[in-house]
C-alpha cells in the first residue's frame, strides 16, 4: 500500500508576497516550518526596552516558545505558548502574538539578560526544523 500526500494551498496572491507562497508550498511538501528571528544582533543600554521578533512560515497557533542561552549553559525557557512566563522568570519578560508573528519584549533590560535568544515552534510534531535563527543581545558602553 502506497501513501501519498496532496498539498492544497489557498492564498490570496494580492495580499501575499511570492516568498511567502514558496514558504507555504515548501512547508506543505516537507512539513518543515521556517522560523525567522529579527534582529540578528542588538546592542542595548541598561534599562532600555527591547523587542525581539519571530516569524513562522506557517501557522503555529500559540505554540511558540522563547529561550535564553548563556555561554556554557543549557537554554533556559523564558516564555511558553507565546505569552506564559515560565516560573521564576522576571516580569520584565513578556511574550505576545499568535498565528505566525510573535514578539518577546524585555522591559528594562538588565545586565544578566545578555545572551542568545531563540524562538521554538511546537505546533508540528516529528523531525522538523523547530528552532529559529538566534538573536544576540549585548550591552554597549553608554
Automatic annotation (TrEMBL):
InterPro entries linked: Ig-like_dom, Ig-like_dom_sf, Ig-like_fold, Ig_sub, Ig_V-set, IgV_Light_Chain
Classification via SUPFAM superfamilies: Immunoglobulin
Lineage: Eukaryota, Metazoa, Chordata, Craniata, Vertebrata
Protein name: Ig-like domain-containing protein
Domain Ig-like, first and last residues per copy: 31-120
SMART domains: IG, IGv
Domain of life of the source: Eukaryota
PANTHER family: IMMUNOGLOBULIN LIGHT CHAIN
Pfam family, one: V-set
Gene3D superfamilies the UniProt entry points to: Immunoglobulins
PROSITE patterns with a match to the protein in the record: IG_LIKE
